[in-house]
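Question:
When you can, review this sequence-structure pair and walk me through the tokens.
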Amino acid sequence: MWQLPDEAALRQLALAFGRCLRAPLVIYLQGDLGSGKTTFARALIQGLGYSGRVKSPTYGLLESYQVGGFDFLHLDLYRIENPAELEYLAISEQFTENGVLLIEWPEKALETLPAADIRMIFKESGEIRSIEFEVNSEMGLKVIGSLKSA
């Protein structure tokens, strides 16, 4: 578990994570509202060199970015009512061998999503945030192993 005293520490962790990133990779971002999921995703994408605005996909469900040799798909499922809504996004057609799929609120559609290589559980207690990493694949082990040794 990573203890993060403030938002700057969260951004620093995202930058370090970006240096360890490999593809293809599916990452679930789970936690309460305001726990840092979107902040982490934004810092990760910008840290790899994306100079444009990294929008929260809360209303559009999906945002995509090409940066750092990766094809990012950033999903936010907070507002979906039915997992079948994801069929219209054609995620499987967009997810490339250079793809990194970041999914906020994956628990809303687990039966329709690809399995997570890494599940990140964001928690918040006052100003202190923590992130627990659950690794579910060989690729996930490589990424988290690199992060721990960085």
About this structure: The domain at 2-149 is CATH 3.40.50.300 (Rossmann fold). The two ends are 15 Å apart (CA to CA). Helices lie at 7-20, 37-47, 91-94, 138-149.
